[in-house]
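quick one, two chains, predict together pls
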Amino acid sequence: MATNTQDSSMTLKLILAWGFVGIPLTWGVVQTLINSMKLFQ
Amino acid sequence: MSFLDRSHTIAKPGFSRWMVPPAALCVHLCIGQAYAFSVFNLPMTKLLGVSQSTAGDWKLTELGWIFSIAIFFLGASAAVFGRWVEEGGPRRAMFTAALCWAGGFLVSAVGVYVHNIWLIYLGYGVLGGCGLGIGYISPVSTLIKWFPDRPGMATGMAIMGFGGGAFIASPLSVWLMNRFHTATHVGVTETFITLGCIYFCFMIVGAIIVRVPAPGWKPEGYVAPTQSQGLITRSDVFVYDTLKTPQFWLIWWILCLNVTAGIGVLGQASAMSQEMFPGHITPVAAAGFVGLMSLFNMGGRFFWASTSDYIGRRNTYFVFMVLGFALYCTVPYTGSIGSVVGFVCAFLIIISMYGGGFSTVPAYLRDMFGTRYVGAIHGLLLTAWSMAGIFGPVIVNYLREYNITHGVPKAQAYNNTMYIMAGLLVIGFICNYFVKPVDARHHMKATDKRGLEAAPAQA
């Protein structure tokens, strides 16, 4: 039981940590990709 | 401040090693802003005139020094503080990097406010540059210790963040300047203050969540090799002893040459594409090309470093040198036949290998010199980057000028430069060929007391 709680707590921490860096990075990549499309216009 | 000590960052049972890459990314995504500093150049030439430059406003040439000083102090601080970073642990290093980086922005904000460029040289250039250097190397050895089975992929993820930081910083800085801009005010001061605060918080989160593995920890199912295999050593070399090995200097030159070849064209990509294909590539399309190159620069950092886990570090650099040579030689041909697609594809692959060169080198150093001081050794090696930052743009700019003043058409002015870059990669190939395992006399002995304070947290 304690192990399960520990596992789900770590999973939550992983989601939060990756979201914390992943969301701004994805936003930046999408912005750059949109600008890059001008090459093909 | 004992919570910054290495001993307070040892992971407890149940900690997932996948928490460490986001911690590293928290730092690298922030310091990667350096690549986007140019967005401030134009607004900073109009601080007094606001709508246009006026007498007393700074010139672009004066502002160009800010980035150069920062990159110089990146290399210098990584080399000088490398051992301190390694022995003090990642949390202390990340915290210090956050203070320097955010402090650099705040001092620069004062510099903009009182219109004193020396304060910006000191703030963003010196203080921020130290934040760059310490921050860049802070998570490297920790990642390598957590991922002994995939060291290339692990460091590739962090160093990818450095390439990706500009993607966030560039639109964010423009948005902030637009928010703070008024009829009498450009808004750079407030933007610097805001960015400094945001980056400080972001980097502190990284410092809080980072952990080092407990002594003796290893990934589930991973069996560490008991003896050296080929170029991969099981021994450690003391940080300053690496300077006595030919392997360190060979890898130094490999990095320097690979970066020189890439950085020269990275800075000139927009102008080069327009001059080689007049009428075909417009300024707007060229801006799109530069954006695409940045994406490949970032993606290449992860792709090539991860690939090196399978094909080996030396082979990865052989690919960079051989493929790079072929592509640089192909670029003039694509120009002569007017193949925009060929030109774009060649440069996208070249720039991915430029990024890959940065991200694969920590794992190369780990293979050659062991895990113990890899972060500090990486710091020493970054002086190659500082050197390449001078060589690359100089070669491209001066050769172009020389060709044009000697009557070469603009469309062909870069041909010789491409052949010189290809030649640099041949030298890089030769250096890589001569990389052999480090002589055992350089290995640290079990009785070696140097860096003993770092030993308890070694995996």
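Chain A has a mean pLDDT of 85.
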